[in-house]
Amino acid sequence: MKYLLDTNTLLYMFGAPSELSARARRIVRSESDLSVSVASFWEIAIKQSIGKLQFGMTIPELEALCRERDIKVLGLSSVAIESIKGLPKIHGDPFDRILIAQAMTGDMVIVTCDGVMPQYPVRTIW
Fold first, then answer.
1. pLDDT tens across 69-79, in order?
2. Which of 18, 21, 63, 97 is exposed most, by the fewest CB atoms within 10 A?
3. Cα–Cα distance between 54 and 33 in angstroms, integer?
């Protein structure tokens, strides 16, 4: 199975691993097909810049740590971006919507504690 780590999962993984559920902790420790979206890096940078997130790593440091752990960094494909148009209008969070689109077009399960994402036609695990 292929997994896409939500931004919250990525932050917990590297900043507060005790916040991960037992299932999420097992996935990030033992599964080999893990990905993170560049959109998560973008979201983190924005939240850091406006003071909504205190996280002790720069984006390049976080990316390097992901690569060291063999977590693939996904770019934004035109196919995923186009598929956003067909998503239901459940909420307007652009970062969640791109992750949902990437998971759907890449046949991935999103590892997330987000309560809204499961309302979309995408598989989630927490």
1. 999 999 999 99
2. 18
3. 28
Length of the chain: 126
* CATH number listed for the domain at residues 3-125: 3.40.50.1010
pTM: 0.94
Taking the alpha carbons at both ends of the chain, their separation in whole angstroms is 15
Q: Compute CA distances 54 → 46, 50, 82, 105, 115, whole Å.
A: 11, 10, 32, 32, 22
- CA-to-CA dists, residue 49 to 12, 71, 90, angstroms: 19, 25, 27
- Helices 7-15 and 22-30 cross at an angle (nearest 10°) of 80
Domain ranges across the chain: 3-125
